[in-house]
Amino acid sequence: MRNDNKKNVIVGIFVFIGIAILVAGVLTLGGQQKKFVKSIRLKAVFDDVAGLQPGNNVWFSGVKIGNVRRINFYGDSQVEIEMNIESKTKEFIRKDSKATISSDGLIGNKIIVLYGGTSAAGVIEDGDRLMTEMPLDTEQMMVTLQENNQNLVSITNDLKTLTGKIAAGEGIIGSTLMDTTIAESFKTMLLNFESSSRTANQMLVELNRFSKELNKEGNLIHDLTTDDALYVGLKETMASFQSTAGQLERMTESLNAITEKLQQSDNTAGLLLNDEETAATMKSLVNKLDESATSLNAGLDALEYTWPFRRGFKRKAKAEEAASPK
Amino acid sequence: MGQMPATKGPVISKKIDRFFIGLASAFLFVKRFFQEVWKPPYEFKEIARQCYEIGYRSLPLISLTGFIVGVVFTNQSRPSLSEFGATSWLPALISIAIIRAMGPLVTALIAAGKVGSSIGAEIGSMKVTEQIDAMEVSAINPFKYLVVTRTLAATFMIPVLVMYTDFVALMGAFLNVNANEMVSLSTFFVQVFEAVSFLDIFSSILKSLVFGFTIGIVGCYKGYNSSKGTEGVGKAANAAVVMAMFLIFIEELLALQIVNAIRAL
């Protein structure tokens, strides 16, 4: 009898522990899947839920806050999702928050992600319908990728053609890379460049030295650039030059006026210079004067031998004779 | 001996007849169980004793098996997952495998081997030694005392054993995952329970009830209908194990279909 009781107790303990494991499992599962948590219900309408199932998780800022309760068709071809969200998280979700469908990892389960929302919009309430945003469709991504692939193929084809031409030594780049004479020329050019730069360098050194010399005190350029008194003197000289130039200009104008007058026949000098008749008259006058002078000379020669002037001439000859050296 | 049957027809016919007779007899046996189970006296003491024998006495063997299954399954799954860098999914994979399928199946198969054969042999030997007939004479309902108690004990003990197996197997898996991936116990169990649902746990329990019932009823049926002689006892024990295992696999297949159908709802 005692043995039977012992067995009964063992069976009781055995069953109790078995049931305890089950209950612990159920509670853990329930706790983890938020089954026993006070929750509110939210709705969202999507065009495509991409394989979302009841029981999938709802995330907000990367934290699991609930799960999908029900999926129903809505309108023509849309899908309405009902979600259970933990009540204690509702104060963080705003009425203008958005819902989108994402994935838990690269190949993981589908999840609903709530995001965004402004504090001005107020806190969500039970039964609210959230705005939705369609997730990136894998098919669309594939289409874009395919386009990229095609572009890549055409780019690589072009590249292949280009490299082929370069390898064959065609074009500027090809001949540059493949032709040895161009390489030599290039080398020579570089050497020339080097030599030119060396020369330029030397020139710069000389220029530097020259400018230093110019900058020394006592040098004209230095004084010109640094001496204030010289500058004032130069300025005055320039002013004198300017006034002289003005006077010259005025003189030139007067000369111009004189010249103009000389070219006209209404004055004595212009008449003398320009009138032919006056010139002829003058010529005849000069001729007459010449003749008169000749006559006068003959008269004067006769006078030398005439009394009472003869004695005077003799005295003059004697005086000249006495003055001349022996 | 040495005499050829006149035609093949009657031989095949006899085999088919035997099959259907066996099926009908099994059906009647199950029917009788469901008739007797509700009627008093309920033989609680015998049920408790059988629970001890079937449940508690099987615990060490089943725990060891569960632990090994957990460790081996984890180790074998790792290379496949690590091929695409998903070893962090090991706990989820193991929990689904153990809770949904391996736990109930391994427990049921081990129990079928240990419990089914012992029930078959025990009742078979009682049949052979005419103890069952003696019970009937002494106004004890042998069916109620032997079959109903053992079948009920098996039906209720297998789910409890499955709970133990699941737990021990998960612990074995944890030890392996912890040693290789340095995952903490809490993280491991968070990932384990993230992958399973209530449906998995309840389907696992319901499945275990069916497996337990199958092990008990098949063992009793084979023992109750064993042929005379010591050879019959051995045959009964063997047939109990083979039939129980076969039926367990069939039931597992059906349960999978039903659970998947419920999951899709």
Entry summary:
Chain A: InterPro entries: Mce/MlaD (IPR003399), MlaD_Phospholipid_Transporter (IPR052336). Chain A has 326 residues and is an alpha/beta fold.
Describe the 3D structure.
The complex is a heterodimer of chains A (326) and B (265). By secondary structure, chain A is an alpha/beta fold. Among the domains of chain A are: 1-29; 33-135; 275-317. Helix content of chain A is 60%, strand content 15%. Chain A is built from nine helices and seven strands, in the order αβββββββαααααααα. In chain A, a hairpin with a 6-residue loop joins strand 5 and strand 6. The longest helix of chain A has 36 residues, at 228-263. Chain A is rod-shaped, with a radius of gyration of 63 Å. The termini of chain A are far apart. Chain B is built from nine helices and no strands. Chain B is mostly helical and 265 residues long. Helix content of chain B is 85%, strand content 0%. Chain B has one domain (44-259). The interface between A and B is medium-sized, with 21 and 25 residues. Chain A: Residues 40-114 form the Mce/MlaD domain. Chain A: InterPro entries: Mce/MlaD, MlaD_Phospholipid_Transporter.
